[in-house]
Amino acid sequence: MTSKVKVGFSLERELLEKIDAVIEASRYLEPSRSEVVEVILAAFFKSPLNHTEKARELIIKRRKGLL
Fold it and tell me: Domain extents for the chain?
């Protein structure tokens, strides 16, 4: 297992509510918010796409209100 680094960041309430819904639906696994966010990020970075380009695309869409 790799070592972990603690980071802090802000989320929109809507995203936090969606993370909490995942946690609630997975109670038998007892996941934490950190674990849910980490697994989502791990899936993103393990996918075969160009992560930098995809992140830029998503940032632009979010800033335009399209995401």
Answer: 13-63
